[in-house]
Every structure is written in C-alpha cells, then in structure tokens.
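cron nightly-structures :: item 1 of 1
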Amino acid sequence: MKLEQTFEWEGMPGHVVVETATFEDLGDGRTKVSTRSLFHTTEERDGMLASGMEIGLGESYEQLDELLAAG
C-alpha cells in the first residue's frame, strides 16, 4: 500500500513537501515502512532538517508502534 500527502509546516509557510509512505507486508505480522519527502529546493530541505522535525517523526513512529501493538 502507498500513501501520498502534502505537508506544509508553519515555520516555512508556502513551502509544500510531498510525502510518500509505502507499506510492505513482510509476513509474520511484520511490515516494512519506507518514507520519502520531496522538497522543491535544497533550501526547503535544509530548513526542515534544521528545525529538528526528525525528532517529531521518531515520536510519531513510536506512537504508531504502540497503536499497532494494542490492536
């Protein structure tokens, strides 16, 4: 399964990122998740990296793990 969405961060208004998440069933109840963020310029990419957004992404994956384990 593949999901695509756009993302605009209030710290960089007007700069829209296209995000893609691909979910691959590995069997035995395991799933591989691959994500890609497409920035239109290197400045947009660097601004997002400098913001510390990867910490929030890690926290989001931890919450997803908890949700999937619960149900």
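cron nightly-structures :: done
The longest helix spans residues 53-70.
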